[in-house]
Amino acid sequence: MTALLSLLRRDLILATRQGGGVGTALGFFLTVLVLLPIGIGPDQVTLQRLAPGIVWITLLLSVLLSSDRIFQQDFEDGSLEIMTMGSAPLELVALTKAIAHWLSTSLPLSIVAPFLGLLLNVRTDVIWPLLVSTMLGSIALSMIASIGASLTVNLRRGGLLISILVLPLYVPVLVFGMSATSGMADIVAPSLLILSAIALASLVLAPIASAAALRAYLK
Amino acid sequence: MRITAENLSCERSGRLVFSGVNFTVAGGEFLQLTGPNGAGKSSLLRLLNGLSEASHGTVKVEDGATDLTLGQQAHYIGHSDASKSALTVRENLGFWRDFLGGGDVETALAAVNLSALTSYPLALLSAGQKRRAALARLALVPRDIWLLDEPSVGLDEASQHLLVSMMQRHLDHSGIVIAATHVPLGLTPHRKLALSGAA
Known about the structure:
The complex is a heterodimer. Chain A is mainly alpha-helical. Chain A has helices spanning 2-18, 22-40, 44-65, 72-76, 79-83, 90-116, 124-151, 159-166, 171-179, 185-218. Chain B is an alpha/beta fold. Chain B contains 5 helices and 8 strands. The radius of gyration of chain B is 17 Å and the shape is globular. Chain B starts with a strand and ends in a 5-residue tail after the last strand.
């Protein structure tokens, strides 16, 4: 336990010190949100209808942008090799590193994202459902991103490949995240429950997949 | 404690790196791996620490901790230093102390003569100093088996002496050292294993 806590602490320190964490992702998020109305046009009704979907999709892309950081540096500098020789199983190491990514990037991003939706004239009564769904979904986003990150850990330019591998897996999160903002009472609650289930399942399954991929690369 | 390897062979991506390797090394002994580039010295060390698997043969540890793998009882110093340039020397070591479960950071840094640089970010250190920071892991966490892959690369003469005296102390406490090296370290190996490749 001390081992995993110290790993979490180290990864959070590195995320704040090295940059490329929430700052870059937030900058990307803001840029897309500012560009979209320019591209779509200033029609407020159209923007309002599209706003929750745009917020969700931009959130997915921003999380992906920083996901190659989860394992790559530790793979390159040999830290992962030494971590396999500790008492903690590699699955828990992978889980801890994905949680560090969630805490340092996905969670802060998912908290500010709905409010940045105001740039798209998002309906104020949608902000709270959107906030709950992005926060719940962000767990799954980081966990699934960690699978992609582990599969591309030895590729210098793995970012694009991660997107191709991971974005299809994001579809369920997107579907239920969006339906949670639909405003219809008999859809919102089940959607949030399914979103929680996806988050919990990804917490269990993603580290197993990541550890398997990392072991194969470390050979 | 004793490590026995029988008829080990190693394949990497279908290429046979070495085969039929046998050795025994007991507590207090230093096994030196020699051989030309590509003979499989690093592969053998990675096989011992559990990163890769032997295609044939077995490695046995006698009188070790029964619930731990060889890798979990060993230190591995590879080609890369496993440290972060954004963290200070002390933070790097502090992380490995907590992760591997070990002793005192300041003592370990004193053992590799880095006490004066503990609060500097690793990025500011020279290659040899970074290497010493990596070697400090050996003094930080007590483990019975040391697997060293070219440990003296980048070290100046004084630091090589430090390394040798660390290895000597470890051997005196009946630890095991298995090191791959081209240059004589100044420590007479008890056993030698010459790898010649699979040819």
